[in-house]
Write a structure and sequence with these properties.
- The chain has 163 residues and is α/β, with parallel strands linked by helices.
- The chain has one domain: Thiolase/Chalcone synthase (Peroxisomal Thiolase, Chain A, domain 1, 3-Layer(aba) Sandwich), CATH 3.40.47.
- It has a five-stranded mixed beta sheet with strand order 1-5-4-2-3, sandwiched between helices.
- Helix 1 runs parallel beside helix 4.
- GO terms for molecular function: acyltransferase activity.
- InterPro entries: Ketoacyl_synth_N, Thiolase-like.
- It holds the Pfam family Ketoacyl-synt_2.
């Protein structure tokens, strides 16, 4: 493990809004914990060139608040705003993090079938073992059912020989 971060940590309020993402705290939560983890490893953006760092986003429920908003809007016969089509795919926020930090490995999103951390680590190790990445930013995120940010963990894995 090269770096780790959590949300929340002591002193945290809500995560900062992220341009291009609306209504939900899912994307801001992912960005906040990923930024914190990457800053602990690299300092400031961008990461060094040629870093071959993958992003592996793991969430069993995904962006609940956006999904519920879209469902309610459609059920009421309303028009869904175009940003919801963009942010409804978790890869969009994972790609946002990769672009901001200059991470040049693959982006993968998982809905775990078992233990989320174990599933994410297995995917990260597979990417390293196959030669697709040297490091992997693993982000585990779940929104709280009441619409509050919930909790997230980001771990930067790498170094040594893939298992």
């Amino acid at each position: 493990m090269l770096a780790e971060a959590r949300w929340p940590e002591p002193g945290d309020g809500g995560p900062d809004p992220v341009p291009g993402f609306v209504h939900s705290v899912f994307a801001p939560l992912v960005v906040a914990v990923a930024e914190r983890c990457l800053a602990r490893r690299y300092g400031r953006r961008p990461a060094p060139a040629g870093n071959r760092t993958a992003v592996v986003l793991v969430s069993a429920s995904g962006d609940r608040a956006s999904a519920e908003h879209v469902r309610a809007t459609v059920a009421a016969g309303g028009r869904v705003g175009p940003l919801f089509f963009f942010q409804s795919v978790p890869n969009s926020v994972a790609g946002h993090v990769a672009a901001r930090w200059g991470l040049d490995g693959p982006v993968v999103c998982l809905s775990p079938t078992g233990d989320p951390r174990a599933d994410g680590i297995a995917e990260a190790e597979l990417l390293r073992y196959d030669g697709d990445a040297d490091e992997a930013l693993l982000v585990l995120v779940e929104q709280a059912p009441d619409g509050t940010p919930g909790e997230a963990v980001a771990v930067l894995l790498g170094g040594g020989t893939p298992q």
